[in-house]
Amino acid sequence: MLIVGLTGNYGTGKSSVLRMFGELGAIVIDADKIVDSLLEDRSVLEKIKEMLGGKVFSEDGRIDRVKVATLIFQERKLRDALEGLLHPLVFQRMEDTLRDVKGEGSIAVIEVPLLFEKGYAWRFDRTITVYAKEETSLRRLEQSGVLRTDALMRMRAQMPIGEKMEKADYVIDNSGSLDQTRSQVAEIYGMLAEDHTVSTKERKTCK
Fold first, then answer.
1. pLDDT tens-place string over residues 37-77
2. What is the average per-residue pLDDT within 132-146?
3. Distance between CA atoms of residues 102 and 104, nearest Å
4. Are 51 and 82 in contact (CB under 8 A)?
5. CB of 21 within 8 A of CB of 190?
6. Which candidate, 99, 89, 126, places its Cα nearest to that of 110?
7. Domain-by-domain residue ranges, the chain?
8. Domain 2-206 belongs to what topology?
């Protein structure tokens, strides 16, 4: 199985690109969705409460994602602590999923927002960065209801997109239309499939 890490910055459209890879036949995993499920786990919530305090919880005991985001993007130490708690659990669930679907000829594309910031590139055979012009990202986020100030705060907390583009094996420009993005996704998927086929043949030859 070829395991591909997909990343980008806030508002670049990583989830849309991930969905396109899924439409082409790739196994797709969204780290954010795994986090969502972890935030329903009582044991995880108790640890977060110890770490961040009760102020990030609503009256019914559910975690308030907006309050958490506001807090951790203002205080780097708290953000690092929360990521240190959640990330190992996220990768464990990813590994469990891949173990269940593992098969010859498969390509798995996994969306990991902090792939390069946290030094996770070693976990993947190939990496892809999704890029979009900052103003395009801001406009899309505002249309979805995100305040520009909040969006900029999150963007500034991440590695500059130019650095991620330099580190990645492939770059997808998501500044244009969906059809333009879909064309790039299809081209890269074809290269990944060819790359995986060649690698598989080489492994069989070495046996």
1. 998 899 999 999 998 888 889 888 888 888 888 888 878 88
2. 92
3. 7
4. yes
5. no
6. 126
7. 2-206
8. Rossmann fold (3.40.50)
Nearest to 121 by CA among 55, 168, 190: 168
CA 144 to chain centre: 19
SS3 181: helix
Mean pLDDT for the chain overall: 88
- Compute and round to an integer the Cα radius of gyration of the chain: 18
| Residues 63-116: tens digit of each pLDDT | 888 888 888 887 888 888 999 999 999 999 999 988 887 665 589 999 998 999
Model confidence at 198: pLDDT above 60: no
pTM over 0.70: yes
Q: Which residues contact 108 (CB under 8 A, 6 or more apart)?
A: 1, 2, 3, 4, 26, 27, 28, 29, 98, 101
Smallest Cα–Cα separation from 141: which of 24, 1, 7, 10? 10
Compute the distance between CA of residue 75 and CA of residue 110 in angstroms, rounded to an integer.
28
Tokens of 10: 């806030």
151-178 tens-digit pLDDT: 888 888 889 999 999 999 999 999 999 9
